[in-house]
Amino acid sequence: MSKTYFDETHCAIGHPKSTFMQWMLTIDHKRIGIMYAAVMFVFFFVAVFTAFAMRLELFAPGGQYMDGNTFNQAFTLHGVIMIFLFIIPGIPAIFGNIVMPLMIGAKDVSFPRLNWFTFWLYIAGCCIALASLFIGEGVADTGWTFYAPYSMNTGTNVIMALVAAFVLGFASILTGLNFLVTIHRLRAPGMTFFKMPLFVWGIYATAWIQLLATPVVGITLVLAILEKYFGIGIFDPAKGGDPVLFQHLFWIYSHPAVYLMILPAFGIMSEIIPTFSRKEVFGYRTIALSSASIAGIGYLVWGHHLYTSGMSDIAKTVFSFLTFFVAIPTGVKFYDWVATMYQGKIVLSTPMIWALGTIITFAIGGITGVTITMIGMDVHLQDTYYTVAHFHYAILGGVVFLLFAGMHYWFPLVTGKMYNETKAKIAFYLNFIGFNLLWFPMFIAGYYGMPRRYFDYLPEFEIYHQLSFYGAVIFIAGLIYMFWVLFKGWTKGEATTPNPWNATTLEWHLPSSPPPLENHSKVPYVDFDPYEYKHGEPVVKFNYETMQRID
Question: What are the CA-CA distances from residue 154 to residues 455, 469, 491, 538 (Å)?
C-alpha cells in the first residue's frame, strides 16, 4: 500500500493499464474537474446552437423553419441544458474541483471516491436528459421551469426530463457536501477562515446552497412525477391541487440557485482584480461576509417571481423589500472591486479585460433586475423580452463571462502552457460586442410589449430581432474563436512558469505546472493574508520544494 494520499494509479477501482481508463476511473480532483469541463462545454455548444436556431426562426415575422410546438421544445431544450447541465454545476464542478483544493493547501477533496461517483452521477443525469429526446413523444415543451398544470398534461416526455433534473440535483447535493467538509477539514495549517482566498469563500457559500436548497427542488420534482404517473392531485387544480404551490416550491430552490451560479463567479472576480491590480484586495472581510449574506438572504426572495401568479399585497411588498435588500451585499462587492483597482498598477491581460467587461454586463443585469423588483414595473414587464434580456445579462454576462475569465486566468496553471494574448483579447472583444448587440435590443422590445417564448410576433418588433440575430452571429464567432485560441495554446503554446501572473494565493505556489499528483510538495504553513502586495510585487514568496517562505 502506497503511503501517498492515493493508490498507485489514483483510480477509484483497480489498476487500469490504459491512459483512457485511468482518466475514466481517476479520483484526482484536477482530472475530474477537467472531465467536467469537457462534458459541460459540449452541452454548452448544443444549447448555444439550439438558441441560434431560435434566433434564425425569429429573424422575420411568420413561420420560417419551425412550428409552435417545435419552438417550445427548442427553448425547453436550451433552458434545461444551460441551467441544469452547464451553468448551475459549471464553476463549482470545474474550478471547485481543479483549483479549490490547491488554494487551501489540500492534497485533494475530503472524499475523492465520492467525487468520482458524483461525476458519473452527473453523466447519468446527462444521459437521461439526452434519452428524453428520442424516447416517447420527444423532448419536453414546458420550458425549463416545468410549470404545472401544463407539465402534468403535456404529451411530451416530461417525465424523463424531471428524472434527469432530479439526478443532477442529487449530484449537486453530494458535491456541496464534499466541498463543505473539504473546506472545514483540509485547510492548510494556519489558514483560518479569514485567510482563505475569496474564491474559496464563494465555493463555501455555494456549497451551503447546494446542500440546503437543492433537496427542495428534488422533492418538488418527485411530487410532479408522482402526480404525472398516479394522478394524486398535488398541483393539478382539476384534481384539487394548486399549481401555484409548484411555483413556490420551484422558486424556493431556483432563486437561491441564481446565487449558487453567481457566488463562485464573484469569487473568480475577487481573485483576478487584486492579481492584475497588483494590490491587496480592498475590504477582504466585507467581500467574504457578503458572499455568506447573499447566500442567506437568497432563501427569502423567491416570491418576486410570483407577483402576477396571485399573491397578497402584503406578501408582494415584503418580497419586494427583501429583493432590494439583497442588492446591498452585491453592491458592496462592486464597490470593493473598484476600490481595489484605484491607484493600482493595473495590467490589462486577458483575464482582467474579461473581468472588467463582466463588471459592465453584470451591472446592467443587476440594475434591470432592480427595475423588475418593483411590483408595478414587474406587472408590465413580466414574461416579456425585457426579462429575457435581464436574465441573460446577469447569468450569461455575469456567470459565464467570469467562467471564461477563470479559464484564461487558470489556463497556465492547468496546462503549463500560455495562449496567444493578442488573439485571446480579439476573442473577448468579439464576444463582448456580439453579446451586447444580441441582448440589449431585447430590453427595448420587451419594454414595448414583445412577449417571450413566442415563435411569431408583430412586424414592429422585427428590427429588434434582426439586430439580435446579427449579434448572435458575432457572439458565436467569438466563442468559436476563443476556444480555438485556447486549444492552440494547450497544444502548441509556449511553456510557462508556475506563477506567470505574479499571483499570491497558494495554487500558484506549486513545484510545477501542471500541478503534480498530490499538489504541493509539502503542506504549507499559512501565516499570511491571501493578497499581500507591496509596490506591485507579491510580499510572500516560497521555495517550491520545501514550501518554506523565502521573503
Answer: 19, 31, 48, 60
Distance CA 304, CA 537 (A): 46
In a domain, 207, yes or no: yes
Cα separation, 404 vs 416, whole angstroms: 18
Query: Is residue 10 a part of any domain in this protein?
Result: no
Segment (H or E) for 277 = helix 243-277
Question: Tens-of-pLDDT digits for all 551 residues of the chain?
Answer: 334 444 455 777 767 777 888 888 899 999 999 999 999 999 999 999 999 999 999 999 988 888 888 898 899 999 989 998 999 988 999 999 999 999 999 999 999 999 999 999 999 999 998 888 777 777 788 888 888 888 888 888 888 888 998 999 999 999 999 999 999 999 999 899 999 999 999 999 999 999 988 898 889 888 988 888 888 888 888 888 888 998 999 898 888 888 888 999 999 999 999 999 999 999 999 999 998 888 888 888 888 888 888 888 899 899 998 888 888 888 899 999 999 999 888 999 999 999 999 999 999 999 998 888 889 898 999 899 999 999 999 999 999 999 999 999 999 999 999 999 999 999 999 999 999 999 999 999 999 999 998 999 999 999 999 999 999 999 999 999 999 999 999 999 899 988 899 999 999 988 878 888 888 878 888 888 899 888 778 887 766 666 666 66
pTM, entire model? 0.93
Q: Is residue 379 part of a domain?
A: yes
Cell numbers found for residue 316: 408582494
Sequence-ordered list of residues with C-beta below 8 angstroms from that of 191, at least 6 positions apart, any chain? 104, 105, 526
The β-bridge partners of 26 are 11
Identify the three-state secondary structure at position 279.
Answer: coil
Where would I find the H helices in 298-345?
Answer: 313-341
Name the 3-class secondary structure at 510.
coil
User: In a 3-state reduction of DSSP, which class is residue 492?
Assistant: helix
Q: Residue 1 domain-assigned?
A: no
Q: What is the CATH number of the domain that holds 428?
A: 1.20.210.10
Cell of 143: 420550458
Range of the domain at 252: 19-549
Domain count, the chain: 1
Question: Cell triple for residue 260?
Answer: 449558487
Q: How far is CA 270 from CA 215, 407, 541, in A?
A: 29, 15, 21
